[in-house]
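A common beginner's mistake is to predict each chain separately and then try to dock the pieces by hand. The better habit, illustrated here, is to supply every component at once so that their relative placement is modeled jointly.
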Amino acid sequence: MKMLINVPETVVADALRGLAAAHPELTVDVENRVIVRRDAPVAGKVGLVSGGGSGHEPLHGGFVGPGMLSAACPGEVFTSPVPDQMLRAAAAVDSGAGVLFIVKNYTGDVLNFDMAAELAEDEGIQVAKVLVNDDVAVTDSLYTAGRRGTGATLFVEKIAGAAADEGMPLERVAAIARQVNENSRSFGVALSACSTPAKGSPTFDLPPGELELGIGIHGEPGRERRAMMTSGEIAEAAVEAVVEDLRPRNPVLVLVNGMGATPLLELYGFNAEVHRVLAARGVPVARVLVGNYVTSLDMAGASLTICQADEDMLRLWDAPVKTPGLRWGM
Amino acid sequence: MKMLINVPETVVADALRGLAAAHPELTVDVENRVIVRRDAPVAGKVGLVSGGGSGHEPLHGGFVGPGMLSAACPGEVFTSPVPDQMLRAAAAVDSGAGVLFIVKNYTGDVLNFDMAAELAEDEGIQVAKVLVNDDVAVTDSLYTAGRRGTGATLFVEKIAGAAADEGMPLERVAAIARQVNENSRSFGVALSACSTPAKGSPTFDLPPGELELGIGIHGEPGRERRAMMTSGEIAEAAVEAVVEDLRPRNPVLVLVNGMGATPLLELYGFNAEVHRVLAARGVPVARVLVGNYVTSLDMAGASLTICQADEDMLRLWDAPVKTPGLRWGM
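With all components supplied together, the output reads:
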């Protein structure tokens, strides 16, 4: 598999140099792998720190900025960052109001953020954590005990980021982040496998004419493999999976997310089918986002995330945000 | 090649339905294939209309909104829209201040926009045109007499859109659009071919271990085919191609654009190399944009566009914009 890289060993460092060149409003520590809002710490405001394996861009580094994350820690591709990165990030963003760690539910991330929280508290930084586990496809997987964290991470980071921006205290920001996660569900499909730079070839084998339903963001297995389906059939499967599990009564935020190699033309077409199926099931839609936000390198496919939102969550969703990957109102 | 679609015949209509569902701030006429700002026509302001074959999203439909295009006309995949679409768009956005057609230099687009301009003028709409032809790779191609229009289209649409928003008259908006095009150069590379829905398989054959330098946005041939290169080597080739042709003396706007299937992780790494080479050549960078903006369906690869910008152009570039694909300041 051909890649636009120098050598696999420098892929993450090269990307961080490029992020720094494109975004002078961020402080990018390439050596220590921490991306921080240039104006951090912001007096009186809770700091938000997330991170995880690289290869899911713009998640998380592309969501650092006013109204969203205070800092992000990128690991190697599909590999958890280490506690030292998280500790540095926490120290850089803590104004004394405390720090919220937003952790996707993968074993390595959970262990390392736990350790970083202990280290940070030893240094007098107050830390709360929220675990994101929105993927309804499987309960346990290669990488996870329990459900995986995927698209809901964007909703958690945006809404909790707005709550922090409003000056809410740590326990309130953490409670809102947990509320967003509890009200979110995701389901993904893969039309092709992705290739990591280190391996240089597809991480699994998906024959022509088949797709994988319930795929994870590292290409880990899903619920089942089937003969290729239409966009409408895939929308029916994805909407059924998330709606049956969540059973929303309020209007939902919708994220139609590309896995990396699916054209935007196709994602918009898929969004039309998702809306058709949601309407048929009587689920009202409050807001919609279509694009590549939580990706899996060059995987073809898409995921659907819905988040049942009350008035407060909608207000926080609509609040201004200014990051490389998500921006409105400023 | 597997695709997230229903049937090839409805790909464009499905995408328009999905765009409408995601963006209530746009008026999307699915039947007649015209996307218009909901508040058009804007009293006293010049209207901007662009369009071209689908498959390059977010170009052009994703660039409709305040501060950029007033309307866009999507054709079938890689096929020019028809004059009737352009005429409808012009009529929808003309406030009496006239309409600027922004036309990428492909034979079909040029002919159809010419015909639409005549029809519009017959209806009393004043029309000016700007031809975008920034691609330095080849002079004539399968689709073009002269140079092809690619990444500079984004710069033209953004900067001319801001000029129209400031209330400049038609001839001034057209002059600025031409100035942007004249000061822009692009060069693209493909690591893989793209597959159109109608064909269902790659549009050309690119063997493992080779890349195509100077590729067009429809996969049409470039300058040469070579053994696979590193990101740094590709940046050297791309920067040399655009800088030797433009020989900029002012700082440049930089667009590091993904062709559709290249991970953002790789695009940021490529951006780092582009900046390294520009610095070595003494070309100062004023602004940077990294992402998938002018795509070729599921092609892997990237293009580089630079635009030499004076103070006026920079001010117009920085002005607020609110579209699905490009947004800041509002």
